[in-house]
Design brief:
single chain, about 240 residues, alpha/beta, CBS-domain, Histidine-containing Protein, Chain: A, 2 domains, about 40% helix
Length: about 240
C-alpha cells in the first residue's frame, strides 16, 4: 500500500518573490499566474516569508484615516503597513513550511492548527521545492470508488492480511467503505477497519463483520494470569 505524500500533490514550479520585490510587482505576479500568495525567498532559495492577498489588502486598508470606523479593526502596525513598499515589509514571517516526504495528514494537521491556507515545501537544506495548498490535500478524495475497492481487496485483505478471498466483501460508494463477512479472530476487525480508513480517498468505513473466535477475552485473561504468577507476585505461604 502506498500512501500519498506532500510531494505527490504539491505544485513544484513555484512563483516566488524576493525581499525587494515591490507591491505592484507582487500584484502583477498574482494576476499573471492566477495565484493568491507567493513565498519570499533569499538568495539561496530559502523561504523567509510569504505574501498573500490578505497582506496586500491589509496594506491598502491601513491607508484609512484613523477616525474611520473600520480603522479600529486593523492591525496595530497599520502605519507601518501603509508605508510598506516591498515584500520584506509586507510579508508574514517567519514562514511555516512542510517537507516533501510528509504524509498528507501531517500537512493537513499543521494547516488546521496554524490556520493556514498553504505551506511552502522545503528540502533537507531548507531550499524551496514546492508549495502545497488546502485544495491539493483534498485531491486524493477525487479517487474513484473502483480503485479504492481494488486496493482494499488485493493489497489489504489478500496480500497484507492473507485472508481467504471469500472472508470479507468490500464495497465502496462515494468513498464510503462497507465491509461484510466473517473473520477468524475478533481482534482482526479493528485492524482491517483501520487499514481501510488510512487509504487515500476513503471518507468513512462501515463494517458489520462477524468473527468465529473472540481472542480479545483470551488475551485479557492471559494477562491477568501472568500478573498473578509473575516474578513480582507475592509468594504463597
Amino acid at each position: 500500500m502506498k500512501h500519498r505524500t506532500v510531494q505527490d500533490v504539491m505544485t513544484g514550479d513555484v512563483v516566488v518573490a524576493h525581499r525587494e520585490t515591490t507591491f505592484k510587482e507582487i500584484v502583477g505576479l498574482f494576476h499573471r499566474n492566477e495565484i493568491t500568495a507567493v513565498p519570499v525567498v533569499d538568495d539561496q532559495d530559502h523561504p523567509v516569508g510569504i505574501v498573500s492577498e490578505a497582506d496586500l489588502i491589509r496594506k491598502e486598508a491601513a491607508l484609512l484615516d484613523e477616525g474611520h470606523p473600520i480603522a479600529r479593526w486593523l492591525h496595530p502596525h497599520g502605519q507601518y503597513r501603509a508605508e510598506a513598499e516591498i515584500a520584506e515589509e509586507m510579508m508574514t514571517s517567519p514562514v511555516v513550511t512542510a517537507r516533501a516526504d510528509w504524509p498528507l495528514v501531517e500537512a493537513a494537521g499543521v494547516m488546521h492548527h496554524k490556520k493556514l491556507k498553504r505551506l511552502p515545501v522545503i528540502d533537507g537544506e531548507g531550499r524551496l521545492t514546492g508549495i502545497v495548498s488546502r485544495s491539493d490535500l483534498l485531491r486524493p478524495f477525487l479517487r474513484d470508488d473502483a480503485s479504492i475497492r481494488e486496493e482494499i481487496t488485493h493489497d489489504v485483505l489478500l496480500d497484507t492480511l492473507w485472508l481467504p478471498a471469500d472472508a470479507v466483501h468490500a464495497t465502496v460508494d462515494d468513498g464510503v467503505v462497507s465491509l461484510t463477512g466473517t473473520v477468524e479472530r475478533k481482534s482482526l476487525i479493528p485492524v482491517i477497519e483501520g487499514m481501510c480508513y488510512s487509504l487515500d480517498g476513503v471518507v468513512a468505513v462501515r463494517q458489520t463483520l462477524g468473527y468465529e473466535f473472540d481472542d480479545t477475552h483470551v488475551d485479557a485473561a492471559q494477562s491477568a494470569v501472568r500478573g498473578t504468577i509473575g516474578p513480582h507476585s507475592a509468594p504463597h505461604h
